[in-house]
């Protein structure tokens, strides 16, 4: 331990410290069936255009659908759905209808073939904007073309994976809008 009280942290666990979340359900359509997967590695990339970075690897059945159709829906579940969302991430959609098995309801989207998830409080209809790092790093840059929210369903809010099977829920909101002096435009409704 050094004088500041730090101890070394294993590099292979660094993602546990910065895993951003929120945990998402990724809805895809492969031309035949819609599928769902769970995703914890994601981040906003730019405000305008609204780009999102998403890690989806070839170990996921969803990878092929994303590659072939170039579209998906990012659905944001609230923490009360956490158990079912984790179950979705333990199951492959190749031969299982996860919608039916885990009680999620597909709703037609406006601009993409993949359905929205009715139980989630927000749904983003996305197209692949850049797949240059999808091969080496499984990183997809998506552009949100349409976004939907049900504020009443936001409930206890989204939740985040700590990378080790534990999750943190967004509980208290800390409102520091007045201190965002340089970034006031971000605080406007
Ligand atoms: C909490 C949690 C987070 C996950 N995050 C990711 C992720 O960020 N990227 C990824 O490729 N797989 C992730 N997975 C694994 C996929 O959800 C899992 O491989 C799933 O079975 C894929 O479904 P599919 O084969 O039907 O596409 C996660 C699983 C869980 C439980």
UniProtKB/TrEMBL annotation:
Named cofactor requirement(s): FMN
UniProt cross-references to SMART domains, sorted A to Z: Flavin_Reduct
Source taxon at top rank: Bacteria
Keyword Flavoprotein included in the entry's annotation: yes
Keyword field: Flavoprotein
Domain Flavin reductase like: 16-166
PANTHER family referenced in this protein's UniProt entry, alphabetically: FLAVOREDOXIN, FLAVOREDOXIN-RELATED-RELATED
Family: Belongs to the flavoredoxin family.
Protein name: Flavin reductase family protein
Phylogenetic lineage: Bacteria, Bacillati, Actinomycetota, Actinomycetes, Streptosporangiales
């Amino acid at each position: 331990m050094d004088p500041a009280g730090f101890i070394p942290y294993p590099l292979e666990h660094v993602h546990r410290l910065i895993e951003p979340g929120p945990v998402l359900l990724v809805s895809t359509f492969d031309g035949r069936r819609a599928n769902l997967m769970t995703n914890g590695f994601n981040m906003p990339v730019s405000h305008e255009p609204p780009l999102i970075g998403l890690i989806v690897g070839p170990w996921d059945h969803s990878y092929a659908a994303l590659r072939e159709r170039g579209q998906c829906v990012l659905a944001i579940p609230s923490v009360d759905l956490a158990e079912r969302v984790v179950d979705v991430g333990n199951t492959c959609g190749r031969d299982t209808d996860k919608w039916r098995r885990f009680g999620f309801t597909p709703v037609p989207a406006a601009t993409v073939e993949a359905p929205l998830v009715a139980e989630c409080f927000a749904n983003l209809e996305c197209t692949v904007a850049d797949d240059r790092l999808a091969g080496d790093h499984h990183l997809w840059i998506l552009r949100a073309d349409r976004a939907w929210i049900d504020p009443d369903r936001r409930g206890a809010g989204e939740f985040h994976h700590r990378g080790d099977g534990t999750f943190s829920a967004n509980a208290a909101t800390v409102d520091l809008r007045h201190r965002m002096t340089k970034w006031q435009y971000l605080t406007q409704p």
